[in-house]
Design goal:
Length: 134
């Protein structure tokens, strides 16, 4: 995967609005999914887009979260709850409010881990789940 070469301290990252952490986490998760799809298939871009959009959707992330929540550290759980409960400026068109809130919490965790340079932790959390989808 990729690495953050200028990580923030945990305190600096905790001071970032959880919706902003989710903004970064969305990009991290999208890249992770796309990279793994490209490495594991020989599909054309249209097929790749359909597959990735289903996985990266709020519904898909909410399902994944059910399996990951027990693996979260106390700190990750706190970040998740802050992201889930944060006031958001937008609404999802294709997901329930609950799914959207949970996916925002999930993305906040990924954003926090990325910004603090914990890319190996991201890989640990996502690797087993992605391999189950193959």
């Amino acid at each position: 995967m990729f690495e953050n070469t200028q990580p923030l301290s945990a305190q600096e990252a905790r001071n970032i609005n959880p919706v902003v952490l989710a903004y970064v986490g969305d990009a991290v998760y999208s890249l992770y999914v796309r990279e793994n799809l490209v490495k594991s298939t020989d599909f054309k871009t249209g097929q790749l887009q359909k597959l990735s959009s289903g996985i990266v959707s709020a519904h898909g992330q909410s399902e994944l979260l059910e399996r990951l929540l027990p693996l979260f550290t106390e700190e990750e759980g706190d970040i998740f709850r802050r992201g889930r409960n944060a006031k958001k400026g937008t609404k999802s068109k294709n997901a329930s409010v609950g799914e959207y809130n949970r996916s925002t919490g999930f993305e906040a965790v990924l954003g926090y881990l990325y910004l603090t340079g914990n890319c190996k932790r991201i890989e640990f959390l996502l690797k087993e789940e992605y391999e189950d989808r193959r």
